[in-house]
Specification:
3 helices; single chain; 38% helix; five-stranded antiparallel sheet
Length: 128
């Protein structure tokens, strides 16, 4: 009798499985930020890349850095992010910016701004 074959998980299912297994003190905050990102723009998709949840709309846009445990750390790694102005975006790198959330209050307070940044980033990437 043939062994049952487990179907391959979709990219989003892989992220869900990653999150299910994640042991992180800010897991609830990471999940909340994940929801903001995935709902920000219909062109944004998610997958596990660089051993972390990562988001793309054609090119890669932003990835969680789960190694930092005191804050939720997002790495925006598309060069178009450098042309977007926001107090939430940190760093003066030529091709990336960082974003951090210490707690759920910061996630909720900054959800609208994160949404704006993501939409502006997707629109810039799609226009190029």
């Amino acid at each position: 009798m043939p062994k049952s074959i487990t179907p391959k998980l979709t990219e989003a299912e892989q992220v869900s499985e990653y999150m299910r297994l994640l042991k992180h003190p800010l897991k609830a905050e990471i999940n909340a930020v994940r929801e903001i990102i995935t709902n920000a723009h219909p062109a944004i998709s998610e997958r596990v890349k660089w051993n972390a949840p990562s988001y793309y709309a054609g090119p890669d846009l932003v990835t969680f850095n789960p190694r930092m445990t005191q804050k939720v750390h997002l790495v925006f790694h598309h060069e178009a992010i450098t042309k977007i102005s926001s107090d939430l975006l940190e760093g003066d790198y030529k091709d990336r910016r960082m974003m951090y959330f210490k707690n759920m209050d910061e996630v909720h307070t900054n959800a609208q701004e994160l949404n704006r940044i993501l939409n502006e980033l997707v629109n810039a990437v799609q226009a190029s």
